[in-house]
Specification:
2 helices; Thrombin, subunit H; 38% helix; alpha+beta; 6-stranded antiparallel β-barrel; 6-stranded antiparallel barrel
Length: 287
């Protein structure tokens, strides 16, 4: 029974198709004879046009959707390429800034080296500085082979930053003036006031909160004021004299109230150090 129904449907469908074909052919033949569009052909054209719209609508929709998806992927790819180029630009810009900074630091170090013409010196670079000991220790790329020895003072791009405490064949360890190791020998310094006698003292410690060195055991406070230059005195024989340390920013009593201390602002940044100059000795003393 089902097979008979299916056959009927097929026969009806074929009949409709044949009827449409016949109507189209007949209308075309009549149009050739009369040069006018007949009612049958007009109805047929309307029917075919309607069917075409119904069939083509989803096809066009799918085509438009495909184009939209393609455009979306193209936009995604273009954004990815632009982001990659932007990332590359950021890297190049960062490298350029680093090169500029290194160039500036090196220039400052060379100027510092030129100002120390009366000293024998060794110029080197910082190769290691651990975050755990940032204010205490750094490692430089000069050692015994370059003539570095323990206790030699070390200069940054503007002034004294520390001393050599350990020497290896190709590297050395520098203890910074900002070290919290209170057992190390501190530098004897002198303060040069505009008026009055030179004042001598000991660079005893570093106050991390204020970022200042503290000088005590001063021979005199007469005439001292903010802005006075502080240099190494050379007393004790462990370091040459005249190496710039910083400038006076304040004077106050110590915690016990028995002595006055002078606060010194470091001339050299103690946090941003790339190049160093190790001071060997006075050049004129060689012989």
């Amino acid at each position: 029974m089902k097979d008979m129904n299916s056959n009927k449907k097929i026969i009806i469908l074929i009949s409709l198709v044949l009827a449409v074909v016949f109507l189209v052919s007949f209308s075309a033949l009549k149009r050739n004879e009369t040069k006018e569009t007949g009612v049958v052909q007009s109805s047929t054209n309307d029917f075919v046009g309607t069917v075409d719209k119904i069939v083509s609508a989803p096809v066009k929709a799918i085509s438009n959707l495909t184009d939209s998806i393609g455009n979306l992927f193209n936009t995604f790819d273009e954004n990815a390429r632009l982001k990659k180029r932007l990332d590359s630009y950021a890297v190049i810009q960062g490298e350029n800034e680093n090169f500029k900074k290194e160039n500036k630091d090196l220039k400052n170090q060379l100027e510092m080296s030129d100002s120390l013409s009366s000293y024998e010196k060794i110029t080197g670079s910082v190769i290691s500085r651990s975050p755990d000991t940032w204010q205490n220790i750094l490692i430089i790329d000069k050692g015994k082979d370059a003539g570095v020895e323990v206790d030699m003072p070390v200069m940054g791009s503007e002034g004294l930053i520390g001393r050599i405490i350990e020497v290896n064949k190709l590297s050395s360890k520098v203890e910074l003036l900002t070290s919290n190791n209170q057992s190390v020998n501190k530098y004897p310094v002198m303060i040069s006031p505009d008026k009055g006698d030179m004042s001598y003292g000991l660079l005893a410690s570093y106050e991390e909160k204020s970022g200042h060195f503290i000088v005590n055991q001063l021979t005199s406070l007469d005439g001292l004021k903010s802005g006075d230059k502080v240099t190494t005195s050379g007393l004790g024989g462990n370091s040459p004299s005249g190496l710039i340390v910083g400038e006076v920013v304040g004077i106050k009593k110590n915690g016990l109230g028995l002595d006055k201390e002078v606060y010194i602002k470091p001339i050299n940044s103690m946090y941003d150090i790339s190049f160093v100059t190790v001071i060997k000795r006075l050049a004129e003393s060689e012989g």
